[in-house]
Amino acid sequence: MLTRIRSFFKSESEKLKGKTWQQKLGYVRDYYWLHITVAVAFLCITSFVIYRVRTTLSDHWFYLMLANTRAEAGTNSPLWDGYVEYSGYDLSEKLIEFNDEAWFDYGKNHAAGNRYYELFVGFTDSGILDAVTMEPGNLTSLGESGRLLDLNNEKCARIREKYRDRFLYAVPYDKEYSTDPVPVGIDISDSILMTEYSLYTDGCAIGIGAQSQHIEAVEIFLDYIFQQPDRPVISGSAADRSSPD
């Protein structure tokens, strides 16, 4: 391989010998414009991916997908600002990301071919996504896929204690897991997502990503959108759930 590369450059050098700089640039443009375009595109895409990894997909306190809403509720929105203030998480350590760009309906053809659903799947399966909000019917359909956490899981004990009367149920496609309905979401239609920010017109529900490692952050978000007066105290990277004195 190295010999072939050397031979190639030697051959090209012979072709360019005796030509002016303008002629050399013209030759490169005429014969290698496609190679140059591909190389530049590769560098741009690589740079973009690195940027996204460092800013969006890096370690985070909480990653929320607000699907199917036309309201501006993403990162740096008033909703996001309120959660950051309420939670007390230190953004110099980790990120809090609200993604309001996704749009998919799992109940229609399982969202096949929808790039936003594919993004949801990738983020959920890799443990990046902590929670998703959408219309209640759409969320329960999504819960059939097994990508929303069963709220009977012991990790959800505190959430179950507070919000079990709001649970939404779905029967999983995987019959080996369960043939009975399992709780996959929480109805939050009377939260500030609706009363203050009008994210949806036909109700609102939230589900927890099946691989989420930040259940406490989801609990804090639920407390925030229901305007619980006792705010958690955050110390460093660990959340102290006791109320302030």
- Sequence of strands across the biggest β-sheet: 2-1-3-6-5-4
Based on helices, strands and strand pairing, what is the structural class?
A: alpha/beta
Sheet with the most strands, sense and barrel status: 6 strands, mixed
Q: Indicate the low-confidence ranges by residue numbers.
A: 53-57, 235-239, 241-245
Q: Per DSSP, what share of the residues sits in E-state strands of 2 or more residues?
A: 5-15%
- The topology string of helices and strands comes to HHEHEHEHHEEHEHEE
Number of helices: 8
Total strand count, please? 8
Cα-atom radius of gyration: 25 Å
The end-to-end distance, rounded to whole angstroms, is 70 Å
Which range best describes the helical content: under 10%, 10-25%, 25-40%, 40-55%, 55-70% or over 70%?
A: 40-55%
* Structural shape: elongated
Mean pLDDT: 83
Structure description:
It is a single chain. By secondary structure, the chain is α/β, with parallel strands linked by helices. 41% of the residues lie in helices and 15% in strands. The longest helix is centred in the first third of the chain and has 35 residues, at 21-55. It is elongated, with a radius of gyration of 25 Å. Residues 53-57, 235-239 and 241-245 have low confidence and may be disordered.
Topology at a glance:
Elements: H1 2-16, H2 21-55, E1 60-66, H3 78-87, E2 95-99, H4 115-125, E3 131-134, H5 136-143, H6 157-163, E4 167-170, E5 182-187, H7 192-195, E6 205-208, H8 215-225, E7 233-235, E8 238-240
Parallel strand pairs: 1-2, 1-3
Antiparallel strand pairs: 3-6, 4-5, 5-6, 7-8
Helix pairs in contact: 3-8
